[in-house]
Structures are given as C-alpha cells and as structure tokens.
Amino acid sequence: MSITDPRSIRISSNLLPADGRFGCGPSKVRPEQMAALAAAGPALMGTSHRQAPIKNLVGSVRSGLSQLFGLPDDWEIVLGNGGSTVFWDVATFGLVNKRSQHLVFGEFSSKFAEAVAAAPHLGEPTVIKTDPGTHPTATSEAGIDTYALTHNETSTGVMMPLVRPVGSDDALVVVDATSAAGGLLWNPAEVDVYYFAPQKCFASDGGLWFAACSPRAVERIEKISASKRWVPASLDLKIALDNSKANQTYNTPALGTVVMLDAQVKWMNEIGGLSACNARSAKSSSILYSWAESREWATPFVSNPAQRSQVVGTIDIASPAEGGVDANDICAALRANGVVDTDSYRKLGRNQLRVGMFPAIDPEDVQALTACIDVVVEALRG
User: Fold this and answer.
1) Residue 292 confidence (pLDDT)
2) Read out DSSP for 1-17?
3) Could you tell me the fold of the domain covering 32-270?
C-alpha cells in the first residue's frame, strides 16, 4: 500500500540520529557553542567592538584560524562584514588586477566569474567550465593575474585539489573555501587567498567573510590600493586588512557570530586540528557513499570517487518510474521525524538528497541517517 502523505511515516526512535541537523549551511551548531554564546552575553553582547574585550575575541579567532590552517607567520587573517557573496565583490575591486581565470562547475563557482565579468575596470575573464558533478583544471595563461578556484562546490558536492598552475608566475591563486574551510585539507604553498564564511564547517551564523592571505596577496592588496582605483569603503580590502591587523572590522560585526565561531575554532584545534576535523568528515562521507552504492535506488551523484566531497554529499535517487521514489517525499518524511535539511540544491533540479558532513556532525549520526532513509524509502515504495 503506497503512502499518500510522506509526513505520516514514523521512524522508530532507536533509529533516529542523536542530532538530526544535516544542512549544508547554516549547519548544525554544537550545544557547547550555544553555551559559549550564553556565557559571553552579559560581558560582551551590547558592548563596543572598538574596545579590548571584543578586539581580544577577534584576535582569538584570527590566531585560532592561523593555527588550524597551519599558516606561516607572515600570513594574515582578514575579515569583514558580509558573507562570501560580498567577498566576490571585495575581490573584484581589491584582488584582481586586470584579468582572471575562473573554474566553474556549479552555482557558486560561477558567481565570482559573473562579478568580474560585470566589472567595467577589468578585462574579460577566462571561464573554464565543466558540467555539474565534475570539476575542471586550471591552466596557466598569458595575461592572467588571478586564478579563481573553488575548493568545494556546495551545490553539487564536488571537491577539487588545490594546485597552483604551473607557469602562473606572480599570479594569485584565490580559493572560495566557503563549505571546505575547516573540513578539507589544503596546502598554503599552493594558495594565496583562502576565503570563506563561517556558517558551514565552522557552525556559526553568516554575515562575515574571512580570508587567509599570503604575503603576495597582501602585496597585491596594497598595490591596488595605491593605484587609486575607486572602491566603496565597505568593499575596500585595504581598509579590511588594516582593521583586521587591529583585531576589528571597518563597521560593526554581529558579535554572536564571532562568539560561536571562536568556540568552534577552539574545539577544532583541541580535537587535533584540521587533520582531525577532516578525518571526521572523511568517515562520514565514506559511510554515506558506501551506503548509496549498496542500494539499487541510490547513486552518488559525483561519479569519480576522487571528486566526491567529504563535507557535502549528493545522492541521486531513482525516480518512481525507475523503481525509486520522489526525493522530496524522503525529505518531507525525515523532517516530520526531526531529521532536517537533506534537500538537494534547488537550482540543480535533480531527484537528489544533499547531506552536510561537516566536522561538527557526528559520523554515527550519518550512519543513523542512512538507516532512516531506508525505512522511509521502504514505506514509500509500499
């Protein structure tokens, strides 16, 4: 007998994950982060971000991120208001000198390219594009001063290795790491700017951008600033750099976001740093992909195992005509049982589940999720 309303399906409580949040951003926030926010409230919330208590908090985040990423001492952690979307505009004004090359393999990796293409002060960018579910490779090109890569495409669940193109000379390698930072491994020697927002692996709220910048990147920022290129003050990377060195932002940040981020970064370093965080995500992804490969109605969307993301898993579900079910019905049934945000990226348009596997998400909960999906699919198939 078929189920007419997937929300009526009940999953046994002993199968449910301990925490049912699997969103790809905003992502699961650990209870300890909320406790840190409550503890900081009376002392920090509602106080000036220009004074020592808040500047010390920002300094803690900056030093914690440098430790987590294993950055050389001469790198800078720069931050500003707005998320990665804002940073695309910041980089368009303050990082690209004349022309850039962009690897595009999903919704978010295309955004920076679009921002640069629309900028009247820059030359036409080169765009190397592949279909969703794969990633392209950067190649050195004359006249290119900025190579724009994406460590993890959040919309499709594709991750790519970060490698400086051979022959790129003095060009910068600028990496969108929004859903990768804190969960995937990377080598600072291959990168000049590694930028992200804190609502994914770092389990905080949005509203801020962070960029780990090499000395070469700092030199580029200062060179463009000295050229007198017009830049709105709120998007001026030199202003952000100068403020960050003083452990503050140009304008008022959302302090709750910083408090939760600081608590998460401390936890990440305490459990063993980036390698330990990556190990948690790698274990979760192994569970998810192995499960999907063992079901006749489920398939990892990314066919090449080496390109399958360890932090964002995308699983295709066979259609009802092919013996499967509607993925939206799976999500509805899961949500009715307290397991949330497994929906696919809306613009990808596939019968698909998308699962966040960031470090804060326990691998045991991913295992429980797969068991819950089995129950739901069996009920939906009747």
Assistant:
1) 98
2) ---S-GGG----TTTS-
3) Aspartate Aminotransferase; domain 2 (3.40.640)
